Amino acid sequence: MAVLSRPRGVVETLPTRPAPRRVGRGRRLRRDWLLLVCAVPGLVWLLVFHYAPLLGNVIAFKDYQPYVGIADAPWVGFDNFSIIVNGDPAFLNALVNTLVISLLQLLFVFPIPIALALLLNSLVSERMKRTVQSILYLPHFLSWVIIVAIFQHMLGNTGLLNGFLTEHDLGSVSIIGNPELFKELVVAQVVWKDTGWGMILFLAAMSRIDPELYEAAAVDGASRLRQVWHVTLPGIKSVVALLLILRLGDVLSVGFEQILLQQNAVGPTASEVLDTYVFNNAVGAGSWGASAAAGLVKGVVGVALVLGANKVAHLFGERGVYQR
C-alpha cells in the first residue's frame, strides 16, 4: 500500500480558529435579565443606606437643628470644623483612643486570621478541618450585646474567673470595668468574635494554589515551614495586600456598638472613640454640625488612606483595590 508523504519544503498550516464575535449590549441584557433582577434589591439597599446618606454631610457646613430642618438651617461655613482645628480636648481624646485601638487591632486582629488559616490549611483530615471551621465561624453571628454579656460573665468581678480565684484563695483580678485594660479587652473581644470569619478569604486564596508547587518543594527537600514561607505566603500575598488596604480605610472606625455598650463601666476618658464622640455630641449634646464635621473628616481621611495604600501596593507590584 502506497504511503503519501508531504513534499519537502511544504509547511502544513493548522486551521485558525475564528475570533469570537462580540455580543451586543442588548443581547447581553436579554440573556442576563434574571441576574440583573436579582441584583436590584442589593443595588437599592446600597443606594438608600450608603449613598443617599452622603447628602446629609451638608449639615457639617450648617447650624443644623432637627426642628429647623436641613434646608432652612443657616450656613456657617467651616465654623463647625473648629473642634478639629483648635484641638478640642474631648475630640483629641477620642482621636487618640481611636488610633491606639486601631493600631492594636492592626497588630493582632489582622494577622491572627492569617495564622489560623495557615494552621487549618495544614490539617490532613478534611472532616476535622470543616469541624474546626464551623466552630470558629459561630461567634461572628452573635451580636455585640451577647458578646459583651459573655465576657462579663467570664471576666467580671463576680464572673467565673474571679469565682475560681476566690475559691482557691488566689485573690481577684479586675478586668471588666478597668479603664487601664479597656483597650486590650476591646481587641480581645474582636479577636474572639471575628477571627474565624476573617480567615475565610485566606483559606479560599490558599485553595487556589497549585498543589504541584507543594510537591515540587517537597521533592527539593523543603520542610513544611519552608513550604509555607516559599509557596503559601507568596500565593496569598495579593489577598493580604487587598484586605490590608481595605482595613486602612476603616482605621478610624473601631466598633461603635461594642464600645458604646461598655462605655458606662469605664468612663469616656478611656473609651471615647470618634464614632461614640459623634453620637454623643449629636444626640446627647445637640451639636449636630460639629459632629457631622468630625464624621466628614473621618471619612475623608479613610478615603485618603485607601488611595495612598493602594498607590504603595502598585509600587510593590500588587494590584490593590483597583488596577492602574
UniProtKB/TrEMBL annotation:
User: Where primarily located?
Assistant: membrane
Q: Which Pfam families match?
A: BPD_transp_1
Q: Which residues form the ABC transmembrane type-1 domain?
A: 95-309
Which residues does UniProt call coiled coil? none
Q: Name one GO biological process term.
A: transmembrane transport
Cross-referenced InterPro entries:
MetI-like, MetI-like_sf, UgpAE/MalFG_permease
A GO-annotated cellular component: plasma membrane
Membrane topology qualifier: Multi-pass membrane protein
Transmembrane region(s): 33-52, 99-123, 135-155
Q: Where in the cell is it found?
A: Cell membrane
Q: From which domain of life does this come?
A: Bacteria
Q: Which UniProt keywords apply?
A: Cell membrane, Membrane, Transmembrane, Transmembrane helix, Transport
Q: Which family does it belong to?
A: Belongs to the binding-protein-dependent transport system permease family.
- The name this protein carries in UniProt is Putative aldouronate transport system permease protein
